[in-house]
Design the sequence.
């Protein structure tokens, strides 16, 4: 029975693949938005004391045969003398039994403007290389399952990879308690067809923001207690998604609870509840989150697991009098 189900799943995948050849692809989504800040928005590049390395991994729907994994790694550096930040971001996504892979490698830059003594605005850009790959020999076509073949026949694509360039831009406004921003991605609409057609990745719009509703800080000590409310909305082609949640931090632990699927603001209303547990030190942030599916797929997917690791550090020869870029009050996960 399991073998039959596996074959049917691969059959469904290839049908979906063929249908999507002339359609539009969608980007993977991370539940720990701020643990992968450069993926969320180029405006966050350099928003650290000096150096930052981020590693992220997401396992989507582990109960479904065929892998749905997303990996991300980024490195960025603050340039306080120029009110700027630079960085590099690489993401790798693999989906389905045919190892449909998407790779993005980008160079990022942001600049911090002082609007007044309280408010800042931080635009950012991401120039990137886009690569789409497919292992055709892992696919099972209809003719391999049914003795009579298919009508009309389905032929393997002539190409097993597609490469293009892409561009994203963003802007972030913040003070010491409030932040809000937007990102426009895929502005060069990179091509995605293995048949040489006009299929492209549609432009993605992302709006995010939040506020620290409670904050307690001990004088001369970095310990603090913070309660934040945040939201994240994204739209790509005809699909859109909204998330709203809470973060509670009390040194060194952080807890988060999110709801994905607000009615009328999400294509799939009532999609998932996301729980987060993290630990934060001066240099190291480690987070784990689980997406508990509450839609009609509750018995089929086993949710999603996500792990993040962020390491921030400074060079040993940096003067303590060095001017720092003002910190953004958003959470670390």
Sequence:
């Amino acid at each position: 029975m399991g073998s039959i189900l596996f074959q049917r799943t691969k059959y469904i995948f290839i049908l979906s693949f063929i249908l999507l050849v002339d359609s539009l692809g969608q980007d993977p989504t991370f539940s720990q938005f701020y643990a992968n800040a450069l993926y969320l928005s180029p405006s966050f590049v350099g928003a650290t004391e000096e150096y930052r390395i981020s590693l992220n991994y997401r396992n989507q729907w582990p109960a479904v045969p065929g892998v749905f994994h997303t990996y991300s790694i980024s490195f960025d550096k603050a340039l306080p003398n120029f009110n700027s930040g630079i960085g590099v971001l690489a993401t790798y996504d693999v989906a389905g039994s045919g190892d449909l892979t998407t790779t993005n490698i980008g160079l990022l830059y942001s600049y911090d403007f002082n609007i007044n003594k309280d408010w800042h605005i931080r635009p950012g850009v991401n120039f990137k290389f886009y690569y789409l790959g497919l292992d055709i020999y892992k696919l099972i076509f209809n003719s391999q399952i049914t003795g009579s073949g298919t009508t009309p026949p389905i032929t393997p694509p002539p190409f097993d990879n597609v490469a293009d360039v892409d561009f994203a831009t963003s802007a972030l406004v913040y003070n010491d308690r409030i932040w809000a921003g937007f990102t426009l991605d895929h502005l060069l609409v990179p091509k995605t067809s293995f048949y040489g057609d006009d299929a492209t990745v549609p432009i993605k719009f992302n709006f995010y923001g939040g506020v620290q509703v409670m904050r307690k800080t001990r004088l001369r000590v970095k310990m603090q207690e913070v309660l934040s409310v945040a939201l994240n909305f994204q739209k790509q082609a005809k699909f859109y998604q909204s998330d709203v949640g809470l973060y509670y931090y009390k040194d060194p632990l952080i807890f988060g609870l999110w709801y994905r699927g607000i009615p009328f603001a999400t294509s799939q209303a009532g999609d998932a509840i996301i729980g987060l547990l993290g630990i934060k030190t001066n240099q190291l942030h480690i987070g784990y989150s689980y997406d508990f599916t509450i839609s009609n797929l509750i018995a089929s997917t086993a949710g999603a697991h996500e792990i993040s690791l962020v390491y921030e550090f400074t060079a040993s020869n940096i003067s303590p009098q060095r001017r720092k870029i003002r910190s953004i009050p958003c959470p670390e996960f």
Summary: Residues 64 and 244 are 27 Å apart (CA to CA). The longest helix spans residues 2-20.
